[in-house]
Amino acid sequence: MSVQNVLNLIKEKNIEWVDFRFVGLSGKAQHISLPSSEVDEDTFVNGVAFDGSSIPGFRGIEESDMVMMPDTETAYVDPFTAHPTVIIMCNIYTPDGERYERDPRSIAQKAEEYLQQAGIGTAAFFAPESEFFIFDDVRFETGMNRSYFEVDSEEAAWNSGRKEEGGNLGFKVPVKGGYVPVAPMDSQQDIRSEMCRLMAEAGLRIERHHHEVATAGQAEINFRFDTLTKTADNLLKYKYIVHNTARQYGKVATFMPKPLFGDNGSGMHVHQSIFNGDTPLFYEKGAYANLSETALYYLGGILHHAPALIAITNPSTNSFKRLVPGYEAPVNLVFSKGNRSAAVRIPIAAVTPKGCRIEFRTPDSTANPYLAFAAMLLAGLDGIKNKIDPRKLGYGPFDTNIYELSDAEKNEIRSVPGTLDEALDALEADNEFLTQGGVFTKDFISNYIDLKRGEAKSVNIRIHPQEYSLYFDC
User: Fold this and answer.
1) Does residue 117 lie in a domain region?
2) pLDDT number for residue 62
3) Highest mean pLDDT: which of 36-50, 63-77, 231-245, 277-291?
4) Residues 94 and 128 grouped into a single domain
5) Are 178 and 87 in a shared domain?
6) Is there a single domain that holds both residue 15 and residue 140?
7) Are 123 and 272 spatial neighbours (Cβ–Cβ below 8 Å)?
8) Which residues pair with 86 in a beta bridge?
9) End-to-end CA separation in angstroms for the chain
10) Predicted TM-score (pTM) of this structure
11) Sequence-distant (≥ 6) Cβ neighbours of residue 70 within 8 angstroms
12) pLDDT attached to residue 328
């Protein structure tokens, strides 16, 4: 969409506000709204100023002036505002016109540029499966003398015996019993369908939606793959629509990886492939799972660099409450066809040559998608460049249920880091693959590690209620 097309859209739709958005290091969208009467061609040339010192991990107060440069290709009409509004994603620049090296969206674009410069392919395609919960109530607090959280859902297993005004109608979703049941057990068909309707109006191509495994309203909606930066843009749009549709229904949605103890968490399985023009580079008929040597080297790079990569794809302390054995969590750094206990799965059902891909199952939606997709691509490209063969390094293929192996057999399999601090240690030790082509800078990586270590410390120094259960009577 050209600048003129955006200006025409503003006029045709009687748009009152233009909402300029960028993404911080956390992956959360930030925004500044301008009256449409103040938006003209110069706005798209000069950008929109903002204070970078107020965004965690960006700039000091002495160098806080920054500029959002709008990307007109991302424009869509906000489906939630009472006053007609157009949303436009932006890249971040310094006042002297330089692309800001800590801007996640610019990092994603540099990763795509590096792919082409490396002469491997012309485009990398990504498709995330971002799971979430829809709750009816959420409460939490942490302070000097108290710490707790409490969530509730009308369909949760723990409410099977609750007395309610008008009676308890039953059909609660059992623990681990929520995978694709029909109504009345699946009580959220309409809310998911409404989310899909709004996503389609905003430009996403919806493939399907369904209830997920966990009790208490776990859901999944899948949208069509696209190139790296566009998919990251689409994921921000997806989360925005999920959050706000849930709120319109008087509910609350969360992409937190592990909001409930004892049931499945929410992941963000990421399908990915590389094309050279119209030619898929991951397909080789008759090979294992019809996977080419290029694809094997790519997934070899992901598995080889996984401990460091996970600091970016699973960047929260809560991420590691999900990454434990026994909850369909992909903690095993191996690859396999159709095997959901492996960190890298090669889908084999109803797959065409152009649909041949790998699926990295470890990530979750606390990840900043621009950074996560870029880091996965760079790990994969490093695998291709250095011919990292996962078969020779003991990463598989592994076509058995790993959870059912003996302890001795499991000990032979490399696992993901156990904590965020361990993942950050790995990233500190292994980050050269991220700096290829100047995509990530050493300054960015150091700043990112410091920011995430601060988050980990803020959790680690606080008293946990379970400690009272274990130690209060000592």
Assistant:
1) no
2) 66
3) 231-245
4) no
5) no
6) no
7) no
8) 18, 77
9) 67
10) 0.95
11) 20, 43, 44, 47, 48, 88, 89, 90
12) 66
Residue with tokens 């949303």: 87
Q: Is residue 114 part of a domain?
A: no
* Residue ranges of the binding site for L-glutamate: 264-265, 322, 328, 340, 361
What does the alpha-carbon distance between residue 376 and residue 380 come to, in Å, rounded to a whole number? 6
Is 154 within a domain? yes
Residues belonging to the binding site for ATP are 207, 223-225, 271-273, 340, 354
3-class secondary-structure state, position 394 = coil
Q: Are residues 272 and 380 in the same domain?
A: yes
Q: Residue 166 pLDDT > 80, yes or no?
A: no
pLDDT at 127: 97
Provide the β-strand partners of residue 77. 86
Q: Do 140 and 131 contact (CB within 8 A), yes or no?
A: no
Q: How many domains does the chain have?
A: 2
Q: Which domain holds residue 144?
A: 123-466
- DSSP class of 283: B
Known binding-site residues equal: 129, 131, 207, 212, 220, 223-225, 264-265, 269, 271-273, 322, 328, 340, 354, 359, 361
Instruction: Please indicate, yes or no, whether residues 172 and 303 belong to a single structural domain of this protein.
Output: yes
Task: For residues 38 and 46, give the distance between their C-alpha atoms in angstroms, rounded to a whole number.
Answer: 13
Is residue 327 pLDDT above 70, yes or no? no
Q: Look up residue 45 and give its two tokens.
A: 């040339």
Contact 220, 209 (CB under 8 A): yes
Beta strands in 73-171 (DSSP E): 76-77, 85-93, 123-135, 137-142, 147-152
Nearest to 181 by CA among 130, 208, 131, 215: 215
- Are both 79 and 128 inside the same structural domain? no
pLDDT tens profile 121-130: 999 999 999 9
- The pLDDT assigned to 398 comes to 84
Same domain, 139 and 193: yes
Q: Which residues are catalytic?
A: 51, 129, 131, 212, 220, 269, 340, 359, 361
